[in-house]
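Protein: NADH dehydrogenase [ubiquinone] 1 alpha subcomplex subunit 13
Species: Brassica campestris
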Amino acid sequence: MTEAMIRKKPGMASVKDMPLLQDGPPPGGFAPVRYARRISNTGPSAMAIFLTVSGAFAWGMYQVGQGNKIRRFVSEWKKYLDYEADVMKDVPGWKVGENVYNSGRWMPPATGELRPDVW
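Structure follows.
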């Protein structure tokens, strides 16, 4: 069997015969532990805070404006559908709000000119 060096002693030895190996502090000791409360005296400037708040406010107002546009469009669309229902109430088979271009009937192209040869 090969000889092994364990803690600078050859071969297998009793634990009691081995020299002590103990951890200790580095020479000069450890650095002091910093435990004091540290509050930074710097932070975002007043201009940065102002611009951030202004940007958030502007974005929120933009969203409100978009919602108002959609609400206004829906209101106008309902008025349009009510008007369409009133105008077309005597037409049999008319469905209010339905797309007139997908009716299944052929219609001549609407070019704005009268072409009796197409009819």
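Remarks: Strands lie at 5-6, 9-10.
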